[in-house]
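Annotators were shown the component list below and the corresponding predicted structure, then asked to write short factual statements about the assembly.
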Amino acid sequence: MTTSPTPRVTIKDVAARAGVSKGAVSLAFNHKPGLSEATRDRIFEAARELGWAPNLAARSLSSSRVDVVGLAICRPAQLLGLEPFYMEFVSGVESVLTERSCSLLLRLVRNVEEEVGLQDAWWRGKQVSGSILVDFRADDPRVPAAERLGLPVVAVGHPSLTGSLTSVWTDDATAVTEAVGYLAALGHRRIARVGGAAALGHTSIRTAAFDEAARALGIAGARQVATDFSGEAGARATRSLLSAARPDRPTAIVYDNDIMAVAGLSVASEMGLGVPGDVSLLAWDDSQLCRLTHPTLSAMSHDVHGFGADVARTLFGVITGEGPGSHPVPTPVLTPRGSTAPPKV
Amino acid sequence: MTTSPTPRVTIKDVAARAGVSKGAVSLAFNHKPGLSEATRDRIFEAARELGWAPNLAARSLSSSRVDVVGLAICRPAQLLGLEPFYMEFVSGVESVLTERSCSLLLRLVRNVEEEVGLQDAWWRGKQVSGSILVDFRADDPRVPAAERLGLPVVAVGHPSLTGSLTSVWTDDATAVTEAVGYLAALGHRRIARVGGAAALGHTSIRTAAFDEAARALGIAGARQVATDFSGEAGARATRSLLSAARPDRPTAIVYDNDIMAVAGLSVASEMGLGVPGDVSLLAWDDSQLCRLTHPTLSAMSHDVHGFGADVARTLFGVITGEGPGSHPVPTPVLTPRGSTAPPKV
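Structure shown to annotators:
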């Protein structure tokens, strides 16, 4: 963006230089069939020589075509690579974007304020047609920011956290209640939960639901520990829980994802405790990891790939003008495998 | 891109309508400090009303600022979510992009021809400043396409596959030779390799190196199986290898990634075979998974996160005009853990 008064090159100049119609230039830049390779090359060559590029915003408005969808994730880069959840979520989003020749603009941010500035710049700079917002917190500043901008978004989070934004969400409270109820039905009275990052809204919802379920079932020996979702943090939390004196040691542990449950299984083995003989373990999300361990891990199964696909489809609806809505996806369901059993008496 | 002769709106019109200088509009759209919130809002409001957006290409050229880097991956969406490699690689790329306020434009493609068209459209449409190309094959059409376009790229692949493009690569042949040599030194004579997708260049390099190493060591009982890198395929391959009659059954298996080795460990357990007593397993890449199993998995350790970061840094060099180069990253090194031992006699 220079401030010197250079004359602006238009599509007409490009067409004239390439010796074709403006429609042909449009076809070439929209990557559509109907032109010979030689003609396309001539058009692109002319555009390069003149320094012309289509106005992406105008292109997007005139053809109602959605090219790029934004996603900012607020996690340290190192941690992102370790969590199966995000890659499965992204792969589900991509499965829908690919069908529509659309790309994902992905960015890691350090905090939610940085994301607010980024979404603002992406939208005003016409770099995205809409965005997916994840990891909601209480009083999330992205809610008023997206409302003020008129940015088409899908908020991945419980409606209690996402204000007037269209939301796609999982009923975590019901799933936690089912998990605790199942372990209690097996006979467990000392049940622990290794939870995710305490600042996240969905973690708070699960924490409250776990306390409530334990209270309702009259389970006094319920404990919860917060982590950062990493395998290492899950291992540390499990080691600490299983190091308690025998009468206080939990006989069942629920995890907030699957990588922490895999780590927990390894810690039990390292401490000479049998699974499920001495301690039952219940994972969450249920990627292929849960079926690759020995014993296999019982889990609250959540189709994360399908969840990502639902989010992407809902965003296309928002971009094309559908009104705001709240879309629950199927609640995670209990999939019992080899890691849960009644406690030894 | 309409063909009706609408007059083109310029930055001057936006400045006039907002009652500010062109420099102020530039500051606002480049997301730079120095303007009050009210002024910024007025500028964006004026730009929206007039339907104006900065020419991203001009902005990028005038400020030498790199905003977006492209990455297309040719894998089924479902598989992408299951392989730790790509998420760790992407997280390494993002760790460098984030430092420079840059985003990653990510797209899944069905085949390499689709990627050629996509990179062409991204570059000519000025949507990216450069791209990362991965998963090279023999006679890869992306090499001449990138050369012809003048697209700044980093090719992640062995120089024998990437032509004149700047490459960042791992010496897979040396690493395979070390892996086979180590297992042979332990006393193994029936060694199998569960490899990746046969069409990929780096798989061919590993396959040839495995055969060569076995020949050089006089190991007759060497076998190789190709897979799609998924845990399920790794489990099937392992089940098939371990179902051979005892005298033919491999006593050691090398895997092309870690998720397949985890799956292999589970299959050995399911078949009642001890690891490493009955069969030694050696993983590749070495994400945290290898330290979470029991026994822990010996691996050819490769810092995939650091590899992604190196690739991103090299791409910034290419974009800012560094000449072509070939950049080997550290060769994967043997990290012995609990899953390898001498064979039972």
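Statements collected:
1. The CA atoms of residues 197 and 228 of chain B lie 5 Å apart.
2. Chain B touches chain A through 83 residues (CB under 8 Å).
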